[in-house]
């Protein structure tokens, strides 16, 4: 057992930190939802970061930790699926990835070169052509959202590969949510530390402090379950991580908005960038009910 | 990072399981209904001696005190296996976790010579004289007083909620020698000292578990004061950091959940909401497990964990609650005693946020030291 990053993993973490610096604050004139950075995407591509899960010294743990770190940025790019799902498939697939689940609009669909198409137990892969997808710029979800309007050719995956895809999607989801939770928490801690009412910062009131502390506990738990699942690649571990992520985020999103008050409702504070990414992830892979069923099948199989 | 146990760690765990399987009596499920029950306390003396013999009582202690300097991981694996088995060491787990180590750090030669080896041999039980009727979370307000006259202190006051006091040989007692937080001192007091009266307080968590302890003109020689006068607060800080990730509660909670699911499956009742709640509780147990392991890993690498230990403790409180609630809702017959080990877990689980300090104090620590929120006005 060794729960500190090894030297190679630390080097990756440092490099990701450095790379993230340029993307750490949102532009003052941005008042929207999907703050996408093609430059961030290009920098990650150029640095070979989408391949680190396949490098034995670093592995999926390093990819998960990087996903968590990058999810804390106000800018987004299609990081999680490319870092954690793509390297675990035998087939070579072009990125970025988008997800269409049960016909609903999904994240990164407008620019996706590969679509993961989930229909119940079936998982298929499609490479959309022009006119197959339509962007949904009005969506409140803070990812570039889009829907399928055409009928691209869908290659159905065999059951084993489908399970692999879903498992690593769950790991990716948990790793991303861990970062989103952290960023939303940090943003709210900053707000309650400066916002004064009744003559003192509202963060001095125990009614808020305890809730913030509980959210910090949940955030730490999601991070560790995501790392554990990335290490093992086990379907049960992945479902536990995704379940804890969706369950914890549900609570944290409410609390962070509540404590940020009207300020958190505006598009001037960045809070919505993280909370409305989390909200997009809450329903993925069947939501909490879907993860629970997998936990029952995988973790309680011999109970 | 490596989330797997080493071969040595796995072998150590297997050894503990083998010894427990050989040593626990057949009616263990019925004895193990509370760590402080009479039967369990009597049994603990026997099994702790056996464990000491097998090198499984204090392996993480230094060799001069009967250990072999095993690392914090082995100490934690041992704690997990013991807690999962229903804590056959009873109250002696405190000796192993913190009383012994604290005496090694702060004890005089006489105190060490007198007290440490009996702990290492599994022959003695201690109780912890901390809480008072008016001083729980606000421990620094305690009023039990030790007044010095020549070389002897006269102690007067009352302790409450004291676990194991009924059978304990020695009390790790906090008493006031002057005013304020830095006016508290620690005394190692034999429980048969004249003037000490113990009264059992019946409780939900099993017989013999909590007590009131009265001190009426109890005479204690200064050689039994641990550390300097007024040093208690500093020493207690170390005690609490050992205790916060002391009991691996997630281990028994996790096992209890699996046992409960197994019962439900046999009866075809593991469906619908039971699945959702079991999965959620399982995730909470695993979150507590990995956060706790993260703290142990730091301890093993001699990296200060600080307020992260409070995050670990609180995540454990969450998992205990979810598992307890799951059993109450889905296997209610357990609370009527139909499944003794599930009941035993219930009685241990419900104190998770109360024993060794209210969980809300951990939230205060997390808010102030981990999140670095501005402090509350005093």
- The top-level CATH class of the largest domain in chain B is Mainly Alpha
Q: How would a crystallographer describe the biggest sheet of chain A? A: 4 strands, mixed
CATH topology of the domain at 160-299 in chain A: Butyryl-CoA Dehydrogenase, subunit A, domain 3
Mean pLDDT of chain B: 94
CATH homologous superfamily (4th level) name of the largest domain in chain B: Butyryl-CoA Dehydrogenase, subunit A, domain 3
**Gyration radius over CA of chain A:** 19 Å
- Number of helical elements of chain A: 9
How many individual helices of chain B?
A: 12
Question: Care to describe what's here?
Answer:
The complex is a heterodimer of chains A (303) and B (378). Chain A is an alpha+beta fold. Chain A has nine helices and nine strands. Chain A is 53% helix and 11% strand. Chain A has a four-stranded mixed beta sheet with strand order 1-3-4-7, covered by helices on one side. A three-stranded antiparallel beta sheet of chain A has the order 2-6-5, with no helix packed on it. In chain A, strands 8-9 form a two-stranded antiparallel sheet. Chain B has 378 residues and is an alpha+beta fold. Chain B folds into three domains: 118 residues, Butyryl-Coa Dehydrogenase, subunit A, domain 1 (Orthogonal Bundle), CATH 1.10.540; 105 residues, Butyryl-CoA Dehydrogenase, subunit A, domain 2, CATH 2.40.110.10; 126 residues, Butyryl-CoA Dehydrogenase, subunit A, domain 3, CATH 1.20.140.10. Chain B is globular. Chain B starts with 6 loop residues before the first helix and ends in an 8-residue tail after the last helix. The mean pLDDT of chain B is 94. At the A-B interface, helix 5, strand 9, helix 6, helix 7 and helix 9 of A face helix 8, helix 9, helix 10 and helix 12 of B.
């Amino acid at each position: 057992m060794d729960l500190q990053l090894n030297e190679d993993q630390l080097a990756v973490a440092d490099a990701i930190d450095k790379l993230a610096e340029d993307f750490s604050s949102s532009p003052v004139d941005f008042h929207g939802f999907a703050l996408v950075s093609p430059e961030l995407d290009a920098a990650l591509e150029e640095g070979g970061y989408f391949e680190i899960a396949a490098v034995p010294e670093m592995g999926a743990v390093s990819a998960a930790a990087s996903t968590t770190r990058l999810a804390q940025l106000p800018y987004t790019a299609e990081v999680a699926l490319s870092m954690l799902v793509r390297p675990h498939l035998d087939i070579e697939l072009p990125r970025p990835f988008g997800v269409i689940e049960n016909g609903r609009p999904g994240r990164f669909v407008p620019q996706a070169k590969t679509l993961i198409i989930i229909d119940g137990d079936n998982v298929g892969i499609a490479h959309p052509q022009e006119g197959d997808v339509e962007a949904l710029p009005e969506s409140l979800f803070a990812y570039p959202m889009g829907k399928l309007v055409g009928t691209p050719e869908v290659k159905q995956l065999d059951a084993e590969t489908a399970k692999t895809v879903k498992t690593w999607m769950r790991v990716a989801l948990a790793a991303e949510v861990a970062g989103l939770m952290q960023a939303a928490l940090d943003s709210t801690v900053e707000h309650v530390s400066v916002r004064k009412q009744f003559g003192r910062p509202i963060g001095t009131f125990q009614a808020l402090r305890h809730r913030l502390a509980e959210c910090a506990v949940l955030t730490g738990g999601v991070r560790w379950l995501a790392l554990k699942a990335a290490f093992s690649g086990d379907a049960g571990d992945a479902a536990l991580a995704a379940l804890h992520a969706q369950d914890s985020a549900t609570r944290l999103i409410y609390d962070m908005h509540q404590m940020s008050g009207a300020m958190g409702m505006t598009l001037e504070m960045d809070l919505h960038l993280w909370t409305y990414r989390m909200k997009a992830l809450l329903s993925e892979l069947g939501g909490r009910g879907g993860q629970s069923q997998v936990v029952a099948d995988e973790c309680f199989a011999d109970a | 990072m490596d989330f797997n146990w080493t071969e040595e760690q796995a072998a150590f765990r297997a050894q503990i399981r083998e010894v427990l399987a050989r040593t626990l009596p057949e009616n263990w499920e019925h004895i193990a209904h509370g760590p402080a029950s009479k039967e369990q306390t009597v049994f603990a003396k026997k099994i702790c001696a056996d464990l000491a013999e097998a090198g499984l009582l204090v392996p993480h202690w230094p060799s001069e005190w009967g250990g072999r300097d095993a690392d914090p991981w082995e100490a934690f694996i041992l704690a997990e296996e013991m807690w999962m088995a229903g804590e056959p060491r009873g109250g002696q787990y405190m000796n192993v976790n913190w009383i012994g180590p604290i005496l090694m750090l702060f004890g005089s030669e006489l105190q060490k010579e007198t007290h440490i080896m009996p702990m290492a041999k599994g022959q003695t039980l201690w109780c912890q004289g901390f809480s008072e009727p008016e001083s729980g979370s606000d421990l620094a307000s305690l009023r039990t007083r030790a007044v010095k006259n020549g070389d002897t202190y006269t102690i007067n006051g009352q302790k409450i909620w004291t676990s194991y006091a009924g059978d304990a040989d020695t009390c790790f007692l906090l008493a006031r020698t002057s005013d304020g937080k830095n006016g508290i001192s620690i005394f190692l007091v034999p429980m048969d000292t004249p003037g000490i009266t113990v009264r059992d307080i019946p409780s939900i968590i099993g017989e013999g578990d909590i007590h009131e302890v009265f001190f009426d003109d109890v005479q204690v020689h200064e050689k039994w004061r641990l550390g300097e006068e007024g040093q208690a607060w500093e020493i207690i800080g170390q005690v609490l950091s050992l205790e916060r990730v002391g009991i691996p509660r997630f281990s028994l909670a996790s096992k209890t959940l699996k046992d409960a699911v197994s019962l439900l499956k046999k009866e075809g009742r593991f469906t619908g909401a039971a699945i959702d709640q079991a999965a959620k509780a399982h995730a909470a147990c695993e979150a507590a497990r990995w956060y706790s392991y993260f703290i142990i890993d730091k301890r093993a690498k001699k990296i200060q964990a600080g307020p992260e230990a409070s995050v670990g403790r609180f995540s454990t409180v969450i998992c205990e609650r979810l598992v307890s609630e799951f059993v109450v809702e889905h296997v209610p017959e357990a609370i009527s005693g139909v499944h003794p080990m599930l009941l035993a877990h219930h009685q241990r689980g419900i104190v998770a946020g109360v024993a060794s300090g209210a969980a809300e104090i951990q939230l205060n620590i997390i808010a102030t030291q981990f999140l670095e929120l501005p402090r509350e006005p005093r």
